[in-house]
Amino acid sequence: MHTPFSQPLLLFSAALIAGAINSVAGGGSFISFPALILTGVNPISANATNNTAMWLGTLGSVGAYRDELATKKRTLLIFGGVSLLGGILGSLLLLYTSPTFFSRLIPYLLLSATLLFTFSTVITKWLQSRLPKWSNPSSSSPPFGVLFLQFVISVYGGFFGGGMGILMLATLSVMGLGNIHTMNAFKSFLGTCINGIAVLPFIVAGVILWNHALLMSIGAVLGGYLGALYAQKLDPVIVKRFVILLGFTMTVYFFLR
Where are the domains of the chain? Predict the structure, then answer.
């Protein structure tokens, strides 16, 4: 089906911005997914197509964070395995669930994640006073509770993924990773695992619009890589404030939508 020039431009621009946002804070799907809906794509295909495009964009972010990730291979292997399992379960759940579930659940999930990230310092101190501390995230195994939270987020990410990055940032902050750049590196790698494995059931089901996905992936890769490089040059406080602002903005939008 032929589309006006404005539609490819809209999709590319939305993916470019979404890729950059995902590399910095997460939540880029709240720009790229509605863009697909506006061009007339049905919600299930829009979600699958957006997932595919954003997955490639996340790969660009991982490349920019490769130095940060190189020293944490054991931790990444454990979290990656949990993320792969959750991602494929979530994508299978999507294929058997009504798309109307998205619009009802997303605002509340996003609000919870944003509040959690906003008050992450207070929550981290409270949890660390009551839970065993993860003394060495670079080499020791993570606590079961942290892995369970990542599994739940991964299921959600495979199911829809909007706001998944903010949920992961909140969890990483609570478990004690205080540096925003380390958190972003983890988030980019785990997002790649979740979205990558989720693509497989979508391919089998034939719900991906490949012309749209390939166009958006170009924008997402460019935005993801440039966004990750730029984020690492910013003051961590500024990045955290940006995450909070983005989270509340998207929360208000989806409650009013």
Answer: 6-256
